Amino acid sequence: MRLRVLAVGQKMPGWVEQGVAEYRKRLPRDMALEIIEIAPGNRRGSDHPARAVAHEGERMLSRLGRDDHVVALDVAGRQWSTERLAGRLDEWRHGGRDVALLVGGPDGLDERCLAKAAERWSLSALTLPHPLVRIVLAEQLYRAWTLLVGHPYHR
């Protein structure tokens, strides 16, 4: 199973790349984590934010695999405990499909992306900066995996 994070935004600061890389290298090969950056839509001038979100959605949908299990990170989604995430991760792994985790831009995810999602997950009721979301997501996936294998990281 591959875990792919499709995230709007490009050229993250070095500290983001380093943080994500640290957790990526800790995950086993059968749960490889990949970050796919989606170019943000144009929000300058007279362009309406909805148009930018639609362009981001098109780019995101074009990167999905036909059989991907799609999870939208959405403020209106359900909040999961780490234990719940570990359970989901185990189910995804045994389901035999790749998992695509969708992270929208500053105006959220396109409705078509939300409609494609089998699940909606909210990392927090707080508004998190998008670079930080990548690190939190990578760390929580790693933490969930450690729970599954009995590693002492989560205590």
Please characterize this protein's 3D structure.
The protein has 155 residues and is α/β, with parallel strands linked by helices. It has helices at 14-26, 49-62, 82-95, 111-116, 130-149; strands at residues 2-8, 32-38, 69-79, 99-103, 119-122. The protein has a five-stranded parallel sheet. Strand 1, helix 1 and strand 2 (32-38) form a beta-alpha-beta unit. The two termini are 26 Å apart. Keywords: Cytoplasm, Methyltransferase, rRNA processing, S-adenosyl-L-methionine, Transferase. One of its GO terms (molecular function) is rRNA (pseudouridine-N3-)-methyltransferase activity. It holds the Pfam family SPOUT_MTase.
Largest sheet: 5 strands, parallel
**Terminal-residue CA separation:** 26 Å
The structural class is alpha/beta
Count of all domains: 1
Order of helices and strands: EHEHEHEHEH
- Give start-end ranges of low-pLDDT stretches: none
Strand order within the widest beta sheet:
2-1-4-3-5
Which term fits the overall shape?
globular
Count of β-strands: 5
Top-tier CATH class = Alpha Beta
Which terms would index this structure?
155 residues, Alpha/beta knot, five-stranded parallel β-sheet
SSE topology sketch:
Layout: E1 2-8, H1 14-26, E2 32-38, H2 49-62, E3 69-79, H3 82-95, E4 99-103, H4 111-116, E5 119-122, H5 130-149
Parallel strand pairs: 1-2, 1-4, 3-4, 3-5
Helix pairs in contact: 1-5, 3-5
Protein name: Ribosomal RNA large subunit methyltransferase H
Subcellular location: Cytoplasm
Main location: cytoplasm
